[in-house]
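Every protein is a chain of amino acids, and every chain bends into a shape of its own. Below is the pair of lines this work produces for a single protein:
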Amino acid sequence: MKKKGSVVEFTPQRDRELLKAFRNQLYLLGEVPLQEIFTRAAMSPASRFWVSEKRALIVISKMFKGDRILSMNSKKREMFYEIFRRVKATRDEEPGITLTEAIFRAVNSPAPEFYLTPKSARAMIYRLRA
């Protein structure tokens, strides 16, 4: 669904936040396998969902039409299902709200995790620390 090589304007912010989560886990855990620290960093809460409002609008619109987004990797699919759940809840609470506004609110609300695999988190952290 995403175009290979696409660049998102908030990537530096996400990267700083992920590196901070990694360092926090490193400090908290000390002597544990590094893979465990990557896993915990990836599962740390994030300040927002790291997807653009435009991309979320495309995917969530498809989900409202019945698309089950099965071709997406499991972590991204999990993220979009959580955004979808929040959008539905917002629209139930505020029937007059537009889909765009509901998505904007959901995407910019705190996320329970980064929705990255430990392998992706590791690659990003190594790239950032180089």
